[in-house]
Amino acid sequence: MSGGRGWGVGVPVQAHPALAAAASAALDAYTVATTEHDRAALAAIVADGADGTPTMRIDVLVEDAILGALARHPVNVLTEETGWVDHGSAVTLVMDPVDGSANAAAGVPLSAFSAAVAVDGVFTEALTVWLDTGRSWWAGPGVPSSLRTSGRRDLAGAAVSLLRPHPANPPAAAAWWEVARRAARVRILSTSCLEGALVAQGATDAFADAATDTHRLVDLAASVVLAESAGGAVRDVFGRAVELDTDLTKRWSGIVAATPDLADELAEVLSTAYRAAS
Amino acid sequence: MSGGRGWGVGVPVQAHPALAAAASAALDAYTVATTEHDRAALAAIVADGADGTPTMRIDVLVEDAILGALARHPVNVLTEETGWVDHGSAVTLVMDPVDGSANAAAGVPLSAFSAAVAVDGVFTEALTVWLDTGRSWWAGPGVPSSLRTSGRRDLAGAAVSLLRPHPANPPAAAAWWEVARRAARVRILSTSCLEGALVAQGATDAFADAATDTHRLVDLAASVVLAESAGGAVRDVFGRAVELDTDLTKRWSGIVAATPDLADELAEVLSTAYRAAS
Questions:
Q1: Which CATH number fits domain B8-139: 3.40.50.12780, 3.30.540.10, 3.30.1050.10, 3.40.50.2000?
Q2: What is the per-residue pLDDT across A17-39, written as a single tens digit (0 to 9) for each?
Q3: Which of A27, B97, B243, B265 is the one with CA 20 to 30 A from B117?
Q4: Which residues bind Mg(2+) per the record (chains A, B) (predicted)?
Q5: CA angle at residue B238 from B232 to B244, to 5 degrees?
Q6: CATH 3.40.190.80 domain residues, chain B
Q7: Could you tell me which CATH class the domain A159-277 is placed in?
Q8: Nearest partner of B234 among B255, B215, B214, judged by Cα
Q9: Minimal Cα–Cα distance from A186 to chain B, Å?
């Protein structure tokens, strides 16, 4: 009986060349950045990103390395800090260079490079690489996925990862608490893409932003491909489609779940609790 | 400027021979167990532990391997499943073979071997090894610690790890929520010993059981040595001493913090909120 845990190691040979180049550059830059800089330097706010949130030095160091590596790959890029770079290609990389920046800067070893490939606007391939270990989760066109979700269909008994609760936002806090009340286990790893990969791998049953509209497309794009290739589903708490959009200020309350049924139940529980407390 | 993240690799050469033998056996047994068994087999409840909680197969596989390796080291042992093994030695190993068993069984790569050495009842040395990566945190007598906490003294602005909230326990839920309200960041990694090591390393500011009395001595013993060697402190929310006790049914609500001030503030905030909601 196989105990295979579902992840790969490093950048898979089948990956799109631009995706592979970006991931390799991210791994190298992360290693250099965390060797050469201390916590305070990595966490220093050095800019405002294209997504409207403050940018840490570690984000810039890794994103700049990636964009350098992509000079030889003229695809379009949508990324956290730089935003939308249009090269007139049919191929777009939607990318979070360092998902879990606060973890990465502080030394909590849970952060990831994560990106999806969209062809003519449709997500076809994705790769998430855990920067601290090189473990990776990939799914792409024409290759049967090695990923398989847990298959769980009900929230009762489920292990759910959540973004941290926000007590200052009572409707969202009520939604968070309702999931915590119903789930068998609750985790907050503070790295959406890695938590999405763990759903695709079957290690956890679901991951959700409890109605705080914190998720940007770069936090969800890879999970759409990885989870769907593995039998899972991605939803937004309020029913908005999670699809390619070059406006990085757009937000979602994403749900990544082991099955469509579980995704629907989470959306229903979260939106109902949110509205009841509004 | 060094970006050294504070952890070591594998079992340090300075470790007490019994501690080193136990850690090496745990690493080997974990690798074999997660290779040979699938999730359901690893998570199967196969016994009731000496601590009064159900025992998963992965706990038994790793603990049995450790006890086998300790046959040549006649120290006393206090461990999760077997309980208290008295060999009449001045030396006692207080040990959690697999901290974060649910993570380990499910494939969430956050679990640890963790043990402290007590000599004549006093904790002198500890080692926590992240089983998924081999990274380790050690502190022992006569050796300046390489660990240093963040030094943070106030809960406002702090990054705090918590055990999951328990909505069915209103006083404890109120205590949990009060810390979430005041802290800058909240994580739930579901592995107390690893979360304690991250406090000792300075990656997070504190870790706490929010007044649920879930912690056993094996969940806290290593953190006492690691945190104190690094400038931090360990407390119980209700003021009970965290010290060697061979009764494994005893429980604490542990706090591991970057400084004595932060530990005291967390104990005050948690116990006050708990009592106000009781």
A1: 3.30.540.10
A2: 999 999 999 999 999 999 999 99
A3: B265
A4: 80, 96, 99, 219
A5: 65
A6: 159-277
A7: alpha beta
A8: B255
A9: 6
Cβ atoms of A3 and B35 closer than 8 Å? yes
- Stretch B260-277: mean pLDDT, rounded? 98
- Enumerate the known binding-site residues of A for Mg(2+): 80, 96, 99, 219
Ligand-binding site membership of B36 (annotated) = no
Q: In this predicted model, which residue has the larger pLDDT, B3 or B50?
A: B50
Provide the pLDDT confidence category of residue A4 given band limits of 50, 70 and 90. low
Q: What is the ipTM of this complex?
A: 0.96
A164 CB neighbours in chain B (<8 A) are: 180, 185-187
CA–CA separation, B44 vs A23, rounded Å? 37
Burial of B249 (0-12, 13-18, 19+ CB in 10 A): exposed
Tens digits of per-residue pLDDT, A140-189? Answer: 998 899 999 999 999 999 999 999 999 999 999 999 999 999 999 999 99
A37/chain B closest Cα distance in angstroms: 5
Query: CB of B189 within 8 Å of any CB in chain A?
Result: yes
Distance of CA B166 to the CA centre of its chain: 20
Residue B229 and residue A76: Cα distance in Å, rounded? 50
Q: Is the dihedral of CA A67, A69, A74, A77 positive or negative?
A: negative
pTM over 0.90, yes/no: yes
Please state the three-class secondary structure of A135-150 as a single string.
EEEEECCCCCCCCCCC
Identify which of A89, A88, A77 has the alpha carbon closest to the alpha carbon of residue A221: A77
Residue B52 to residues A106, A160, B83, B230: CA-CA distances in angstroms?
Answer: 36, 26, 10, 32
CB B258, CB B199: distance < 8 Å? yes
Domain with CATH 3.30.540.10 in chain A: 8-139
> What pLDDT score does A1 carry?
29
Question: Cβ neighbours of residue A159 under 8 Å, at least 6 residues apart?
Answer: A183, A184, A185, A186, A187, A204, A205, A206, B102, B106
A26 vs B86: CA distance, rounded Å: 51
Annotated binding-site residue? B219: yes
Residue from B92, B149, B150 nearest B119 by CA: B92
Read off the pLDDT of each residue in A87-92 and give the average, rounded to a whole number: 96
SS (H, E, C) A19-70: HHHHHHHHHHHHHHHHHHCCHHHHHCEEEECCCCCEEEHHHHHHHHHHHHHH
- What's the pLDDT score for residue A5? 66
Q: B142 pLDDT exceeds 50?
A: yes
What are the strands, taking DSSP E only, across B86-163? Answer: 91-99, 112-119, 122-130, 135-139, 159-162
CA angle, residues A78, A82, A85, in degrees to nearest 5? 50
